[in-house]
Batch of 3 targets.
Target 1
Amino acid sequence: MAELAERTSVIVPAFNEAHSVATLVESLQRQARWLEIIVVDDGSTDGTGDAAAGAGARVLRHPYNKGNGAAVKTGLRSAAGAYILIVDADGQHQPHDTVRLVSQLDRYELVVGARSADSQASWSRRIGNHWLNRTASYLTGHPIPDLTSGFRAAHRECMLEFIHLFPNGFSTPTTSTMSFIRAGYSVRFEPIVAAQRLGTSKIRLGSDGARFVLILLKVTTIFSPLRLFVPVSGALFALGAAYAAWTIATQSHVTNSSVLLILSSIVILLIGLVSEQIASLRSEGRRS
């Protein structure tokens, strides 16, 4: 573990977290001898960067607020370690869990701190996360207990491979998790208990929830499009065939609607096959 920690850059994206960031940095320093602790001050107006620097962190500053994902990307590009550990600055992630995550990087390319259900904020957030997890599990073909957890350790080189896919907002955990799984990397979900966050959450269930679903579909079509196109095609074909059978039985002919549904299913399947070939060619171009 000590060797892994000494090769790990800790990245802390922070926006207006002056009330908690210094305590977090000091707690992280007590856990292990990290290569460096990088706090990315994402355009804060409350002295977050100064508080982090005073606690001994290396501070990178954005001139204005760009988003959590943009802060993570800044940290990734500047990190010197072979491994990276991403920790939120709001006090939810327990510093003593960092050792458990990093210690498994010799066997996994990505280790995600999977929060227990009772530590995931409000009931509405739990329900939203539950359905996101189920959707992501289906689309990737891999069980995902916590898709949106920002607490994660990974090989920096692997993270950089997908950095162009990461959005600037709050969907970076979603995108990175699905990208690693669909690319065939080894991913582990390590159970953790998250603490109550300090301050107010910057994620909005309605708008950000819809954005998370779009991210799921985007990443799936990039890495495994048939997981999306085949069910849609099959549903349209089944609907068209059933309607055709009903009109033949009741009206002795096939309607244009039935034909349109069946043709649409064929077109969607063909688009999926072409997309699958493009995805395969893209995968062949990944780093060896």
Target 2
Amino acid sequence: MKEFALLFRNESNVGSEITPQQMELMSSKWQHWVGGIAAQGKLVSPGSRLGFNGRVVQPGDNVVQRPYAEINQILSGFHVIKTSTLDEATEIANDCPILSIGGSVEVREIIPMNN
């Protein structure tokens, strides 16, 4: 089995448009989706949500005061899963609740570091 990171991206202002009721419904959808992955034994790490503030350190002592300041989408969280193939990981990502609010999921194979 290989490990894949599911990187969740959405608009940087998406949180300001969601009502508490919508947030509760979305949380329920996320719990159901992640629970299904865990029930299959494919969840390696439930990951975390990421805050909307941050910095990007670039070469030459250049620091951008928030992540991806030049675009509207930001990385908002991640999970690590294990599947046999990239296609299988993509199929799991295809059911992610973030897609219902215009977000996206980037699926990336994790390459283990050799000691």
Target 3
Amino acid sequence: MSYPEKRRSNAWFLLPIFFGIIGGLIAFFVLRQDDPSKAKNCLYLGIALMVVGIIMNLILAAIIPGLDSGFSVNV
């Protein structure tokens, strides 16, 4: 069944920006019938931001060598 394409607000891109992949999935399932191209773009944005976050965490973990399991705390 083909649904007529209805333009949705660009504010939907804020959902994957603030909530990552979860926001992208929510936006995708809400927008998929009204505006399929925007739905796919929201999903891709959520995935891209998730990948960027993982890469940034790996880089940060590699840069800070002093973080180990003990954290130099004497209890």
